[in-house]
């Protein structure tokens, strides 16, 4: 019996000594430079000890490329688009983005020709508030990769942007066009019918970004009473906006529109089918823009312009034809700030009984009184109410 007791004690002593023995620690290898092979092997190809390697991001690809060059340049590695751009004075150029697609854009160069360019992956839209890196109208710096291809290395600071909420990430904005001077808000009197709320949304967006808005109502030849468009649009004239009545088919107002576009960069905005491309073709027939037809059943326009594009005018200036946008959000605008976007309402705001009057149901509201008296357009006030209901508090 004593022999069994001694055996158990000896076994417990062995287990105790094993647990208290120091464990072999894994080495955190920081000297990764000494482990790279001389024959161009990668880290995974070498017979290395089982240790944790700490390697800077992209170091393996950079060293592989360096090894190839040292070996005589027999193999030409593909360019790393995520690497910081390298300045080559012989290949640097600047230009204006005239078309944008996914990861690609066409840049009009200062010497007159254009170049298809890829956008460097190192250019990120993070922390900018925008979802797209490059937009039509952007001034960019590029490097050439041969005669027919290049890379966008940098986007120069924008002096203005026209944006809308991104359809998927509503807390971010999508740049429709950059570096424009004015916005031509194109609507139609019929087919599709004049939509005051959408026109007002464009006017507000233009004012908030410092752009000059111009209202252009096309297809006035379809009005049953020729005086009706002038009567309805008089409210916008009273509010201080420039209003132009046109008919691309009859060339009514085309000369006046041409004068407003000369020497400026103008973005055209409006629903599909209102005649934006038709008007531009009437102003400048050489543009050869696609012109669509209106759906006879729903009286809505079909999308003939699928992406924004910038065009140079022969008599000076640029125009940007944008896709038809049905829903134009006002990102960042609060309910309390909307009244200031309507000049005729902002002028009366101080006469209301309450300083924070929203001009809806409050007593002694000077704006609602002016609507009843006819000094403020009921059409504009109705648009104000609809937009107010769509805004956050």
What is the gist of this entry?
By secondary structure, this protein is of the alpha/beta class.
Task: Name the features.
393 residues; alpha/beta; OB fold (Dihydrolipoamide Acetyltransferase, E2P); Rossmann fold; 4 domains; 6-stranded mixed β-sheet; 5-stranded mixed beta barrel; 17 strands; 22% strand
Explain how this protein is built.
With 393 residues, the protein is an alpha/beta fold. The protein contains ten helices and 17 strands. The strands form five sheets. The protein has a six-stranded mixed beta sheet, sandwiched between helices. A hairpin with a 4-residue loop joins strand 6 (139-144) and strand 7.
Can you tell me the CATH class of the largest domain? Alpha Beta
Helix content: 25-40%
What is the averaged pLDDT score? 78
The topology string of helices and strands comes to HEEHEEEEEEEEHEHEHEHEEEEHHHH
Give the CA-based shape.
flat
The SS-based structural class is alpha/beta
Compute the separation of the termini in Å: 87 Å
Low-confidence stretches: 26-58, 67-91, 294-306
CATH topology name of the largest domain: Rossmann fold
Strand content is 15-25%
Radius of gyration: 32 Å
Q: What's the CATH architecture of the largest domain?
A: 3-Layer(aba) Sandwich
- Integer tally of domains: 4
Furnish the topology, listing elements before pairings.
Layout (H helix, E strand, L loop, with lengths): L1 H19 L7 E2 L22 E2 L5 H12 L21 E10 L2 E6 L4 E6 L19 E6 L4 E7 L5 E5 L7 E6 L3 E7 L7 H13 L3 E7 L9 H11 L3 E4 L8 H8 L3 E5 L6 H8 L10 E2 L4 E2 L7 E4 L5 E4 L13 H4 L4 H4 L19 H8 L4 H13 L3
